[in-house]
Design goal:
Rossmann fold, alpha/beta, nine-stranded mixed β-sheet
């Protein structure tokens, strides 16, 4: 997938990014700054918006514009204001930490479910053309509160295409694996333990995860925005990492590490999945990944149905679900390179 630079479909458009101060949101905003677009950054993190504004000031303002919207996706009125005149919307705001969501389930629902509903309503009210929801592999056969709320968010987005009427608005989903370089990721814990010379805490010796770089996550969002019809879930081909090997890749080559297995945390999975058995039957290969078509096309716009019929007739079907325990993990050296480039 290509980088954001040169995406002509975004030229002269107004683009809104929620969760703009987060790992993916901020990189997406920075990528969009390189194009001839008006970038609207929406976040409750005032300091994060200020950082983005300072980066935007370095660009030529005859071609690039930046708008910092302080707000919360739980606030419908503020969202509707931010969506005014917007052509593309990337919804990145979420409660994403499994353990925090597990102990604060009501707050997770308010942000990850009710917040998504608010996004849909604001986009429809303002006739936003394309809306992308950034989801997670934890939405597949979820065991955690975070995963369950992300699954509901996906369902809300896909179903929204049945309620667009004669509007131009369309909704689609991108599903990420683990972004090892994001804030609060396990790499931060491992780095701290290695620096202190402490044993590396593992919840399970055999745990594996799908991983991708933040840059590729941004590119997946842009690919989906350009290619979407409405109702799809986009996946990118991802590498698999054994969590034990991630710690080894962060250490100095040859450094001996001690590991302390402490047992899995509540709702933590031994392996991750990118698609279910049922979704595999509706998954078709793209250039660098897969697209999952909706289970039901009833009430979808007729142009969307026509496009999906074309995909079914001309694209290769995946057939098998994607699970991290069924793919060989990266070598430690490959992980080092992955983390270095991440």
């Amino acid at each position: 997938m290509n980088s954001a630079l040169g995406h002509s479909f975004l030229d002269e458009k107004r683009v809104l990014v929620t969760g703009a101060a987060g790992t993916i949101g901020s990189l997406l905003v920075e990528s969009l700054m390189q194009d001839a677009v008006t970038v609207c950054a929406f976040d409750s993190d005032e300091a994060g918006l200020a950082v983005l504004k300072s980066k935007a000031d370095k660009f030529d303002h005859t071609k690039n514009k930046f708008r910092g919207f302080a707000g919360n996706i739980r606030d419908v009125a503020r969202l509707e204001e931010a969506c005014s005149g917007v052509n593309y919307l990337f919804h990145c705001a979420a409660m994403k930490h499994v353990d925090i969501c597990e102990y604060n389930p009501i707050e997770a629902v308010k942000t990850n479910v009710e917040g998504v509903k608010n996004i849909v309503g604001a986009a429809l009210k303002n006739n936003v053309e394309r809306v992308i929801f950034t989801s997670s592999d934890k939405a597949v056969n979820p065991q955690s509160t975070m995963g369950a709320t992300k699954l509901l968010g996906e369902r809300i987005f896909i179903a929204a295409n049945c309620a667009v009427g004669d509007r131009i608005t369309r909704f689609s989903v991108v599903r990420f694996g683990n972004i090892l370089t994001s804030r609060g990721s396990v790499t931060e814990i491992f780095k701290d333990q290695i620096r202190k010379g402490d044993p590396i805490t593992l919840t399970s010796q055999g745990m594996t995860r799908f991983v991708l770089s933040a840059t590729n996550a941004v590119n997946l969002c842009l690919f989906a925005a350009e290619q979407m019809n409405g109702g799809e879930i986009f996946l990118q081909n991802m590498e698999v990492a054994a969590i034990r090997d991630v710690a080894a890749a962060l250490a100095v080559p040859g450094q001996q590490l001690q590991f302390n297995e402490i047992g899995r945390r509540p709702a933590e999975k031994e392996f991750e999945e990118l698609s279910t058995e049922d979704e595999a039957e509706r998954s078709y290969e793209t250039t660098n990944g897969f697209v999952i078509l909706p289970e039901k096309l009833d009430n979808m716009p007729s142009d969307v149905i026509d496009q999906f019929c074309y995909i079914e007739a001309n694209y290769k079907r995946a057939k098998k679900p994607l699970r991290s325990d069924q793919h060989p993990p990266m070598s430690i050296e490959a992980l080092r390179e992955f983390l270095r480039n991440g």
